[in-house]
Design a protein that fits this description.
443 residues; Type Iii Antifreeze Protein Isoform Hplc 12; seven-stranded parallel beta sheet; 16 strands; Rossmann fold; globular; five-stranded mixed beta sheet; 3 domains
Length: 443
Protein backbone atom coordinates (compact mmCIF):
# COMPACT_ATOMS: atom_id res chain seq x y z
CA UNK A 1 0.00 0.00 0.00
CA UNK A 2 1.12 3.56 -0.61
CA UNK A 3 2.45 5.57 2.31
CA UNK A 4 -0.51 7.95 2.17
CA UNK A 5 -2.93 5.05 2.41
CA UNK A 6 -1.05 3.62 5.39
CA UNK A 7 -1.48 6.93 7.20
CA UNK A 8 -5.24 7.02 6.65
CA UNK A 9 -7.06 7.26 9.99
CA UNK A 10 -10.70 7.49 8.88
CA UNK A 11 -13.57 4.98 8.88
CA UNK A 12 -12.36 1.65 7.48
CA UNK A 13 -15.49 0.16 5.99
CA UNK A 14 -15.15 1.90 2.65
CA UNK A 15 -11.48 1.11 2.10
CA UNK A 16 -10.73 -2.35 3.51
CA UNK A 17 -12.62 -4.11 0.73
CA UNK A 18 -10.53 -2.31 -1.87
CA UNK A 19 -7.34 -3.14 0.00
CA UNK A 20 -8.25 -6.83 0.08
CA UNK A 21 -9.26 -6.79 -3.58
CA UNK A 22 -5.90 -5.28 -4.52
CA UNK A 23 -4.06 -7.93 -2.50
CA UNK A 24 -6.08 -10.71 -4.11
CA UNK A 25 -5.36 -9.38 -7.61
CA UNK A 26 -1.65 -9.21 -6.82
CA UNK A 27 -1.63 -12.66 -5.14
CA UNK A 28 -0.26 -10.99 -2.02
CA UNK A 29 -2.64 -12.12 0.73
CA UNK A 30 -2.37 -11.04 4.35
CA UNK A 31 -1.02 -14.11 6.14
CA UNK A 32 -2.89 -14.66 9.39
CA UNK A 33 -2.08 -16.95 12.29
CA UNK A 34 -4.77 -17.76 14.82
CA UNK A 35 -4.43 -18.93 18.42
CA UNK A 36 -7.49 -20.76 19.70
CA UNK A 37 -9.94 -23.01 17.87
CA UNK A 38 -13.10 -22.89 19.94
CA UNK A 39 -16.56 -21.86 18.82
CA UNK A 40 -15.55 -18.38 17.66
CA UNK A 41 -12.23 -19.53 16.21
CA UNK A 42 -13.93 -22.15 14.05
CA UNK A 43 -16.32 -19.55 12.72
CA UNK A 44 -13.47 -17.18 11.89
CA UNK A 45 -11.46 -19.90 10.18
CA UNK A 46 -14.42 -20.85 8.01
CA UNK A 47 -15.02 -17.22 7.10
CA UNK A 48 -11.44 -16.38 6.13
CA UNK A 49 -10.94 -19.57 4.12
CA UNK A 50 -14.22 -19.37 2.22
CA UNK A 51 -15.13 -15.70 2.02
CA UNK A 52 -12.14 -13.35 2.33
CA UNK A 53 -10.07 -13.07 -0.86
CA UNK A 54 -6.81 -11.28 -0.16
CA UNK A 55 -6.38 -12.96 3.21
CA UNK A 56 -5.00 -16.40 4.06
CA UNK A 57 -5.26 -18.26 7.35
CA UNK A 58 -1.86 -19.92 7.24
CA UNK A 59 -1.84 -21.68 10.61
CA UNK A 60 -3.82 -22.35 13.77
CA UNK A 61 -2.28 -23.04 17.17
CA UNK A 62 -4.41 -24.86 19.70
CA UNK A 63 -3.51 -27.05 22.65
CA UNK A 64 -5.88 -29.69 21.25
CA UNK A 65 -4.72 -30.43 17.72
CA UNK A 66 -7.95 -32.18 16.82
CA UNK A 67 -9.89 -28.95 17.40
CA UNK A 68 -7.47 -26.98 15.23
CA UNK A 69 -7.83 -29.57 12.49
CA UNK A 70 -11.60 -29.46 12.86
CA UNK A 71 -11.58 -25.70 12.22
CA UNK A 72 -9.86 -26.20 8.87
CA UNK A 73 -11.83 -29.29 7.89
CA UNK A 74 -15.12 -27.49 8.53
CA UNK A 75 -13.83 -24.81 6.16
CA UNK A 76 -13.20 -27.44 3.49
CA UNK A 77 -9.41 -27.80 3.67
CA UNK A 78 -7.10 -30.44 5.14
CA UNK A 79 -4.21 -29.08 7.24
CA UNK A 80 -0.83 -30.58 7.96
CA UNK A 81 0.54 -31.03 11.47
CA UNK A 82 3.70 -29.05 12.15
CA UNK A 83 5.49 -28.98 15.48
CA UNK A 84 8.15 -26.35 14.72
CA UNK A 85 8.23 -22.89 13.17
CA UNK A 86 10.39 -24.22 10.35
CA UNK A 87 7.84 -26.87 9.43
CA UNK A 88 5.01 -24.34 9.58
CA UNK A 89 6.99 -22.03 7.29
CA UNK A 90 7.54 -24.94 4.88
CA UNK A 91 3.81 -25.64 4.85
CA UNK A 92 3.02 -21.97 4.20
CA UNK A 93 5.49 -21.91 1.31
CA UNK A 94 3.84 -25.01 -0.13
CA UNK A 95 0.39 -23.47 0.14
CA UNK A 96 -0.76 -25.85 2.86
CA UNK A 97 -2.48 -24.70 6.06
CA UNK A 98 -0.80 -25.92 9.23
CA UNK A 99 -1.85 -26.76 12.77
CA UNK A 100 0.33 -26.88 15.85
CA UNK A 101 -0.02 -27.35 19.59
CA UNK A 102 2.58 -24.67 20.30
CA UNK A 103 1.46 -21.06 19.92
CA UNK A 104 5.01 -19.84 20.41
CA UNK A 105 6.26 -21.91 17.46
CA UNK A 106 3.53 -20.22 15.42
CA UNK A 107 4.77 -16.83 16.60
CA UNK A 108 8.26 -17.68 15.34
CA UNK A 109 7.01 -18.28 11.78
CA UNK A 110 8.57 -15.87 9.28
CA UNK A 111 5.68 -15.86 6.83
CA UNK A 112 3.17 -14.24 9.14
CA UNK A 113 1.63 -10.77 8.93
CA UNK A 114 -0.86 -10.74 11.82
CA UNK A 115 -1.92 -12.78 14.83
CA UNK A 116 -5.51 -13.19 16.00
CA UNK A 117 -6.07 -14.20 19.65
CA UNK A 118 -9.33 -16.13 20.00
CA UNK A 119 -8.42 -17.87 23.25
CA UNK A 120 -10.52 -15.97 25.80
CA UNK A 121 -7.94 -17.04 28.40
CA UNK A 122 -6.35 -14.25 30.43
CA UNK A 123 -3.11 -15.94 31.47
CA UNK A 124 -2.31 -17.72 28.24
CA UNK A 125 -3.54 -14.79 26.17
CA UNK A 126 -1.17 -12.52 28.07
CA UNK A 127 1.83 -14.71 27.27
CA UNK A 128 0.90 -14.95 23.60
CA UNK A 129 0.24 -11.22 23.25
CA UNK A 130 3.49 -10.24 24.98
CA UNK A 131 5.44 -12.59 22.70
CA UNK A 132 3.71 -11.26 19.58
CA UNK A 133 4.47 -7.66 20.53
CA UNK A 134 8.11 -8.54 21.22
CA UNK A 135 8.24 -10.09 17.76
CA UNK A 136 6.69 -6.83 16.41
CA UNK A 137 3.66 -8.59 15.01
CA UNK A 138 0.26 -6.85 14.78
CA UNK A 139 -2.31 -8.47 17.07
CA UNK A 140 -6.09 -8.53 16.71
CA UNK A 141 -7.53 -9.68 20.01
CA UNK A 142 -10.96 -11.13 20.69
CA UNK A 143 -9.85 -11.48 24.33
CA UNK A 144 -11.80 -8.74 26.12
CA UNK A 145 -10.99 -10.28 29.49
CA UNK A 146 -7.26 -9.79 28.93
CA UNK A 147 -7.80 -6.30 27.50
CA UNK A 148 -9.89 -5.29 30.52
CA UNK A 149 -7.20 -6.52 32.91
CA UNK A 150 -3.89 -5.31 31.44
CA UNK A 151 -4.88 -3.84 28.07
CA UNK A 152 -3.50 -0.33 28.73
CA UNK A 153 -0.05 -1.77 29.49
CA UNK A 154 -0.09 -4.09 26.47
CA UNK A 155 -1.18 -1.22 24.22
CA UNK A 156 1.66 0.88 25.64
CA UNK A 157 4.13 -1.90 24.86
CA UNK A 158 2.71 -2.27 21.35
CA UNK A 159 3.11 1.45 20.64
CA UNK A 160 6.70 1.31 21.87
CA UNK A 161 7.33 -1.62 19.52
CA UNK A 162 5.70 0.20 16.61
CA UNK A 163 2.90 -2.33 16.09
CA UNK A 164 -0.88 -2.30 16.38
CA UNK A 165 -2.72 -4.13 19.15
CA UNK A 166 -6.45 -3.84 18.54
CA UNK A 167 -9.81 -5.18 19.55
CA UNK A 168 -11.79 -6.96 16.87
CA UNK A 169 -14.43 -5.46 14.63
CA UNK A 170 -17.70 -7.30 15.17
CA UNK A 171 -17.31 -7.58 18.92
CA UNK A 172 -19.59 -5.05 20.59
CA UNK A 173 -16.74 -2.88 21.95
CA UNK A 174 -15.31 -2.26 18.49
CA UNK A 175 -18.77 -1.70 17.02
CA UNK A 176 -19.19 0.99 19.67
CA UNK A 177 -15.75 2.35 18.83
CA UNK A 178 -16.61 2.67 15.14
CA UNK A 179 -19.89 4.35 16.05
CA UNK A 180 -18.15 6.72 18.48
CA UNK A 181 -15.71 7.79 15.78
CA UNK A 182 -18.57 8.29 13.34
CA UNK A 183 -20.57 10.36 15.82
CA UNK A 184 -17.58 12.51 16.75
CA UNK A 185 -17.03 13.13 13.04
CA UNK A 186 -20.49 14.72 12.89
CA UNK A 187 -19.45 17.29 15.47
CA UNK A 188 -21.54 15.53 18.11
CA UNK A 189 -19.96 15.04 21.55
CA UNK A 190 -20.50 11.41 22.65
CA UNK A 191 -21.61 11.13 26.28
CA UNK A 192 -22.87 7.53 26.51
CA UNK A 193 -21.51 4.39 24.88
CA UNK A 194 -23.96 1.57 25.45
CA UNK A 195 -24.39 -2.14 24.97
CA UNK A 196 -27.76 -3.86 24.47
CA UNK A 197 -28.22 -7.12 26.38
CA UNK A 198 -31.01 -9.66 26.33
CA UNK A 199 -30.36 -11.14 29.78
CA UNK A 200 -28.70 -10.17 33.03
CA UNK A 201 -28.66 -12.53 36.03
CA UNK A 202 -25.56 -12.44 38.20
CA UNK A 203 -26.26 -15.86 39.67
CA UNK A 204 -26.25 -17.90 36.47
CA UNK A 205 -23.78 -20.80 36.48
CA UNK A 206 -22.44 -23.38 34.03
CA UNK A 207 -25.19 -25.68 35.27
CA UNK A 208 -28.03 -23.27 34.48
CA UNK A 209 -26.48 -22.42 31.09
CA UNK A 210 -25.55 -25.93 30.00
CA UNK A 211 -28.60 -26.57 27.80
CA UNK A 212 -28.19 -23.27 25.97
CA UNK A 213 -24.49 -23.91 25.48
CA UNK A 214 -25.10 -27.40 24.11
CA UNK A 215 -27.73 -26.10 21.68
CA UNK A 216 -25.27 -23.66 20.12
CA UNK A 217 -22.09 -25.70 20.50
CA UNK A 218 -20.55 -23.25 22.96
CA UNK A 219 -18.71 -23.56 26.26
CA UNK A 220 -21.00 -23.39 29.33
CA UNK A 221 -18.46 -21.15 31.05
CA UNK A 222 -18.38 -18.72 28.14
CA UNK A 223 -22.17 -18.60 28.01
CA UNK A 224 -22.30 -18.05 31.77
CA UNK A 225 -19.94 -15.09 31.54
CA UNK A 226 -22.42 -13.44 29.17
CA UNK A 227 -25.45 -14.25 31.31
CA UNK A 228 -23.98 -13.17 34.66
CA UNK A 229 -22.80 -9.78 33.41
CA UNK A 230 -19.07 -10.42 33.49
CA UNK A 231 -18.66 -10.20 29.74
CA UNK A 232 -20.57 -6.95 29.32
CA UNK A 233 -18.54 -5.48 32.18
CA UNK A 234 -15.29 -6.29 30.38
CA UNK A 235 -16.65 -5.07 27.07
CA UNK A 236 -17.70 -1.72 28.48
CA UNK A 237 -14.52 -1.34 30.51
CA UNK A 238 -12.38 -1.56 27.40
CA UNK A 239 -14.59 0.98 25.60
CA UNK A 240 -14.15 3.33 28.56
CA UNK A 241 -10.40 2.84 28.54
CA UNK A 242 -10.18 3.49 24.81
CA UNK A 243 -12.27 6.68 24.86
CA UNK A 244 -11.64 8.18 28.28
CA UNK A 245 -15.10 7.43 29.64
CA UNK A 246 -16.02 6.26 33.13
CA UNK A 247 -18.88 4.45 34.84
CA UNK A 248 -21.65 6.36 36.56
CA UNK A 249 -21.71 3.89 39.44
CA UNK A 250 -20.34 0.47 40.34
CA UNK A 251 -21.84 -2.00 37.87
CA UNK A 252 -22.94 0.81 35.49
CA UNK A 253 -26.56 2.00 35.45
CA UNK A 254 -27.68 -1.23 33.78
CA UNK A 255 -31.36 -0.39 33.38
CA UNK A 256 -34.09 -2.67 32.11
CA UNK A 257 -35.56 -1.03 29.01
CA UNK A 258 -37.87 -2.86 26.63
CA UNK A 259 -38.47 0.06 24.29
CA UNK A 260 -36.32 1.34 21.43
CA UNK A 261 -32.83 2.65 22.15
CA UNK A 262 -33.91 6.07 20.82
CA UNK A 263 -36.06 6.41 23.96
CA UNK A 264 -32.92 6.30 26.11
CA UNK A 265 -32.28 9.96 25.33
CA UNK A 266 -34.75 10.76 28.09
CA UNK A 267 -33.27 8.38 30.68
CA UNK A 268 -29.98 10.17 31.39
CA UNK A 269 -29.09 13.40 33.17
CA UNK A 270 -27.11 15.39 30.60
CA UNK A 271 -25.42 17.59 33.19
CA UNK A 272 -24.30 14.50 35.10
CA UNK A 273 -22.93 12.96 31.89
CA UNK A 274 -21.04 16.13 31.05
CA UNK A 275 -19.60 16.29 34.55
CA UNK A 276 -18.38 12.71 34.30
CA UNK A 277 -16.92 13.27 30.84
CA UNK A 278 -18.98 10.47 29.31
CA UNK A 279 -19.98 7.04 30.59
CA UNK A 280 -20.24 3.46 29.46
CA UNK A 281 -23.46 1.62 30.18
CA UNK A 282 -25.75 -1.21 29.12
CA UNK A 283 -29.49 -1.84 28.95
CA UNK A 284 -31.40 -5.10 29.13
CA UNK A 285 -34.18 -5.88 26.66
CA UNK A 286 -34.00 -2.82 24.40
CA UNK A 287 -34.73 -2.85 20.69
CA UNK A 288 -33.01 -3.32 18.33
CA UNK A 289 -30.85 -5.92 20.00
CA UNK A 290 -28.27 -7.19 20.44
CA UNK A 291 -26.71 -4.01 19.16
CA UNK A 292 -24.99 -0.95 20.58
CA UNK A 293 -25.86 2.71 20.98
CA UNK A 294 -24.16 6.08 21.41
CA UNK A 295 -25.86 9.14 22.83
CA UNK A 296 -24.37 12.58 22.31
CA UNK A 297 -24.97 16.32 22.24
CA UNK A 298 -24.26 19.11 19.79
CA UNK A 299 -23.29 22.58 21.01
CA UNK A 300 -24.21 24.44 17.80
CA UNK A 301 -27.88 25.61 17.81
CA UNK A 302 -27.99 25.71 14.02
CA UNK A 303 -26.81 22.12 13.78
CA UNK A 304 -29.35 21.08 16.43
CA UNK A 305 -31.99 22.52 14.08
CA UNK A 306 -30.69 20.31 11.28
CA UNK A 307 -30.55 17.25 13.54
CA UNK A 308 -34.21 17.71 14.44
CA UNK A 309 -35.03 18.09 10.75
CA UNK A 310 -33.19 14.81 10.15
CA UNK A 311 -35.57 13.11 12.63
CA UNK A 312 -33.12 12.77 15.52
CA UNK A 313 -35.36 14.73 17.86
CA UNK A 314 -35.05 18.04 19.70
CA UNK A 315 -32.07 17.05 21.86
CA UNK A 316 -30.17 17.71 24.00
CA UNK A 317 -29.24 14.03 23.57
CA UNK A 318 -29.25 12.41 20.16
CA UNK A 319 -29.34 8.67 19.58
CA UNK A 320 -27.15 6.69 17.21
CA UNK A 321 -27.11 2.90 17.11
CA UNK A 322 -26.03 -0.21 15.27
CA UNK A 323 -28.71 -2.93 15.40
CA UNK A 324 -26.33 -5.89 15.31
CA UNK A 325 -22.76 -7.03 15.85
CA UNK A 326 -21.51 -9.86 13.67
CA UNK A 327 -18.52 -11.02 15.70
CA UNK A 328 -16.10 -13.14 13.65
CA UNK A 329 -17.65 -12.10 10.32
CA UNK A 330 -16.24 -8.59 10.83
CA UNK A 331 -12.88 -9.57 12.35
CA UNK A 332 -11.01 -9.60 9.00
CA UNK A 333 -11.71 -5.86 8.78
CA UNK A 334 -9.55 -5.39 11.88
CA UNK A 335 -6.75 -7.47 10.34
CA UNK A 336 -6.67 -5.23 7.26
CA UNK A 337 -6.88 -2.08 9.35
CA UNK A 338 -3.95 -3.20 11.49
CA UNK A 339 -1.71 -4.53 8.71
CA UNK A 340 -2.34 -2.11 5.84
CA UNK A 341 -3.40 1.08 7.63
CA UNK A 342 -1.87 0.86 11.13
CA UNK A 343 -5.34 1.67 12.43
CA UNK A 344 -6.77 0.11 15.59
CA UNK A 345 -10.47 -0.54 15.85
CA UNK A 346 -10.16 -0.27 19.63
CA UNK A 347 -7.08 0.40 21.75
CA UNK A 348 -6.52 2.26 25.03
CA UNK A 349 -4.30 5.32 24.44
CA UNK A 350 -3.17 5.73 28.03
CA UNK A 351 -4.06 5.00 31.64
CA UNK A 352 -7.00 2.75 32.53
CA UNK A 353 -10.27 4.41 33.47
CA UNK A 354 -12.50 1.43 34.32
CA UNK A 355 -11.74 -2.02 35.73
CA UNK A 356 -13.80 -5.16 36.19
CA UNK A 357 -13.74 -6.35 39.80
CA UNK A 358 -14.72 -9.73 41.22
CA UNK A 359 -17.91 -10.15 43.28
CA UNK A 360 -18.89 -13.28 45.21
CA UNK A 361 -21.63 -15.19 43.39
CA UNK A 362 -22.20 -17.28 46.53
CA UNK A 363 -20.81 -17.43 50.07
CA UNK A 364 -17.11 -18.26 49.78
CA UNK A 365 -15.13 -20.11 52.44
CA UNK A 366 -11.57 -19.91 53.73
CA UNK A 367 -9.15 -22.01 51.71
CA UNK A 368 -11.38 -22.16 48.64
CA UNK A 369 -9.72 -21.70 45.23
CA UNK A 370 -11.76 -19.46 42.94
CA UNK A 371 -12.88 -20.95 39.64
CA UNK A 372 -12.74 -17.75 37.60
CA UNK A 373 -14.64 -16.47 34.57
CA UNK A 374 -18.10 -17.85 33.91
CA UNK A 375 -17.96 -20.16 36.91
CA UNK A 376 -19.79 -20.80 40.16
CA UNK A 377 -17.85 -18.48 42.47
CA UNK A 378 -17.67 -14.95 41.11
CA UNK A 379 -19.09 -12.49 38.62
CA UNK A 380 -17.52 -9.27 37.38
CA UNK A 381 -18.79 -5.69 37.62
CA UNK A 382 -17.40 -2.45 36.23
CA UNK A 383 -15.75 -0.06 38.68
CA UNK A 384 -13.63 3.06 38.27
CA UNK A 385 -9.94 2.37 38.17
CA UNK A 386 -9.29 4.83 40.98
CA UNK A 387 -11.74 3.06 43.31
CA UNK A 388 -10.26 -0.29 42.36
CA UNK A 389 -6.80 0.92 43.30
CA UNK A 390 -7.73 2.83 46.47
CA UNK A 391 -9.88 0.00 47.86
CA UNK A 392 -7.49 -2.71 46.66
CA UNK A 393 -10.30 -4.51 44.86
CA UNK A 394 -9.53 -7.77 43.09
CA UNK A 395 -9.65 -7.51 39.28
CA UNK A 396 -11.86 -10.22 37.82
CA UNK A 397 -9.13 -11.12 35.34
CA UNK A 398 -6.86 -12.12 38.24
CA UNK A 399 -9.47 -14.04 40.26
CA UNK A 400 -9.09 -17.54 38.83
CA UNK A 401 -6.92 -19.73 41.06
CA UNK A 402 -6.82 -17.26 43.95
CA UNK A 403 -7.20 -18.91 47.37
CA UNK A 404 -9.45 -17.31 49.99
CA UNK A 405 -7.63 -16.08 53.11
CA UNK A 406 -10.97 -15.38 54.77
CA UNK A 407 -14.66 -15.99 54.17
CA UNK A 408 -16.48 -13.64 51.78
CA UNK A 409 -20.25 -13.23 51.78
CA UNK A 410 -22.38 -13.49 48.66
CA UNK A 411 -22.46 -10.22 46.65
CA UNK A 412 -19.43 -8.76 48.47
CA UNK A 413 -16.68 -7.35 46.27
CA UNK A 414 -13.43 -9.22 46.79
CA UNK A 415 -10.23 -7.39 47.65
CA UNK A 416 -6.59 -8.36 47.44
CA UNK A 417 -6.69 -8.68 51.22
CA UNK A 418 -9.22 -11.51 50.86
CA UNK A 419 -7.06 -13.75 48.68
CA UNK A 420 -3.63 -15.15 48.02
CA UNK A 421 -2.57 -14.90 44.38
CA UNK A 422 -1.10 -17.99 42.73
CA UNK A 423 2.68 -17.63 42.55
CA UNK A 424 4.61 -16.78 39.41
CA UNK A 425 1.81 -15.67 37.09
CA UNK A 426 2.72 -13.38 34.20
CA UNK A 427 -0.60 -11.54 34.31
CA UNK A 428 -0.02 -10.50 37.94
CA UNK A 429 3.39 -9.11 37.02
CA UNK A 430 1.84 -7.25 34.09
CA UNK A 431 -0.87 -5.80 36.30
CA UNK A 432 1.74 -4.58 38.78
CA UNK A 433 3.76 -3.07 35.93
CA UNK A 434 0.63 -1.34 34.64
CA UNK A 435 -0.14 0.14 38.07
CA UNK A 436 3.44 1.43 38.36
CA UNK A 437 3.52 2.83 34.83
CA UNK A 438 0.33 4.86 35.08
CA UNK A 439 0.26 5.59 38.82
CA UNK A 440 -2.81 6.27 40.93
CA UNK A 441 -5.46 8.35 39.10
CA UNK A 442 -5.91 11.77 40.65
CA UNK A 443 -2.77 11.39 42.79
Amino acid sequence: MAAAAREHRGPPVIIVDNALRERAEQDRPIRVGMVGAGFMGRGLANHIVKSVPGMRLVAIANRNLANAERAYVEAGVRPVRADTAGRIDAAVAAGRPAVTEDAFELLAVEQLDCLVDVTGAVGFGAAVTVAAIERRLPVVTMNAELDGTVGPLLAHRARAAGVVLTGADGDQPAVQANLLRFVAGLGVTPLVAGNVKGLQDEYRTPTTQRAFAERWGQSPHMVTSFADGTKVSFEQAIVANAFGFTTGRRGMYGRAHTGHVDELTGRYDVDELRGLGGVVDYVVGARPGPGVYVLGTHDDPSQRHYLELYKLGPGPLYSFYAPYHLCHLETPNSVVRAVDFADAALSPPGAPRVDVVAVAKRDLTVGQALDGLGGFDTYGVAETHRTTRVERLLPMGLAEGCVLRRAVAKDAVLSHDDVALPPGRLVDALREEQDTLFGLPGA
